[in-house]
Amino acid sequence: MDLKIDKSHWNPVKLGDVFTKKEENDKENARNRFDRFLKVNHMDSECLHVKRWASQENGEELNPYFYKIFRKGQILFPTRNPHLRRTVLAPFDGITGEKTLTLEPQKEFLDPNFISFIFHSESFYAHTTGAIIGSTNPHCRWRDVANFEFLLPPKNQQTKIAKLLWTIDEVIESEKELLEKIKINDLSHLKQYFFDDNTSEELKLKNIVSIKKGKQPSELLENESGVPYCKAKYLRSGVIEQSVPETSLIKSILINDDDIIILWDGAAGEIFKGRKGVLASTMSKIEIINNEFIKDYIFEFLRFRSSSINRASVGSVIKHVDPTYFNNISVPKFSLDKQNLIVNKFNSLRLNIEICKSKIKTSQSLQKSLINQIF
Questions:
Q1: Segment 326-363, tens digit of pLDDT
Q2: 213 & 326 share domain
Q3: Whole-prediction pTM value?
């Protein structure tokens, strides 16, 4: 979306001219004054909203370096690793770490609803990441942040732009809430079909599937010129980290899009749908050997059992799936018609999840485009 903006009456300012860095520190008593505190990992990338936090009342331990007080309406900008793009608008009073800037907009110049979005513009992050110092703990300094220069529109125009940006933001948050509800519905159906049922005949997994462990190829390429090497990241996101040259495919386990794959080593137990390529040595391919079971039905069942498979993993250095535990998992034996009904239900939920994700991505792209045109 191309927003036709007349910036002829906008004034160049520096961020330090229109924001005040607040230093409300209370090393002795902050933990007694406030229950809630925010860590950097509570802040989502490129999102102004705070959706989770830590609480002393819940028994969560407060870091000794957490004594900086922030106030509702302030901007919280972690100076460490600014490239992670974690900047939020505080929705309540609380405590944060000493390396997080607590910035307050000067309301005589700014509409606070407008200026919040500047912290997620490409120009702001290019400036702050370009000012990073330190190799062990990369961070930027307030004086560098304060020197970020941008064009500031008149206050009445700020308000109009803010209304547009927050309207899009509300759409994004609404779509995210819907996505979470669909995911909860997905989990509810997994429990309904595979946990609540205690009347069906059951068979052990070893009588239903066979397992083929992936193998390390003799050569791997650090590019996409060969056949994709199917590690967890590739199966999750489609991002190819390595590939296998055609000359090294001998003895490799090839997989397709409809195969069932389990992460066997490491974060053992995670279940994936395959992607065309070579199975990595940390993964295993699950094949159906019993025609009384549908492949996609077993996939859904294993999704349900993935957490328990992980908890039962063994190994002192690198955890891996316990074959004995895995082989002896009991699977409900439903009729083929019921298995198909279950598969169709989850396919429908999965389609709704993908549609919702697509809408979120489109809205986020629109919002980002507008932010970058404005700032």
A1: 999 999 999 999 999 999 999 999 999 999 999 999 99
A2: yes
A3: 0.79
Residue 194 lies in a domain: no
Alpha carbons 267 and 211: distance in angstroms, whole number: 18
Q: What distance in Å separates the CA atoms of residue 30 and residue 321, rounded to the nearest whole number?
A: 45
* Interval 191-200: pLDDT, tens: 888 876 667 7
What does the DSSP 8-state code read for residue 50?
B
In this structure, are residues 36 and 55 in contact, taking their beta carbons and an 8 Å threshold? yes
3-state secondary structure 193-224: HHCCCCCCCEEEHHHCEEEEECCCCCCCECCC
Residues 150 and 15: beta-carbon distance below 8 Å: yes
| Same domain (yes/no): 103, 205 | no
Parent domain of 357: 155-177+334-375
Question: Are 234 and 323 found together in one domain?
Answer: yes
In the chain, how many domains are there? 3
Are residues 345 and 266 located together in one domain of the fold? no
Is the CB of residue 205 less than 8 Å from the CB of residue 312? Answer: no
Both structure tokens of 56? 């002393």
Q: To which residue do tokens 């941008």 refer?
A: 150
Report yes or no on 188 lying in a domain. no
Residue 293 lies in a domain: yes
CA dist 95 to 37, 51, 56, 136, 142, Å? 5, 15, 11, 25, 19
Claim to verify: residue 17 and residue 60 sit in the same structural domain: yes
Are 90 and 32 in a shared domain? yes
**Rounded to the nearest 5°, which phi and psi values hold at 281?**
-70, -15
Whichever domain contains 116, its CATH number is 3.90.220.20
Asked if residue 265 lies in contact with residue 320, where contact means CB atoms within 8 angstroms, the answer is yes
Residue 265 has which token pair?
Answer: 């080593």
CA atoms within 13 A on the CB side of 341: 7
Contact, 71 vs 51, CB < 8 A? no
User: What are the pLDDT digits (tens) for 242-272?
Assistant: 999 988 888 899 999 999 999 999 889 999 9
* 36-38 and 94-97 strand pairing: parallel
* Distance between CA atoms of residues 32 and 26, nearest Å: 10
Residue 93 lies in a domain: yes
- State whether 315 and 343 are in the same domain: no
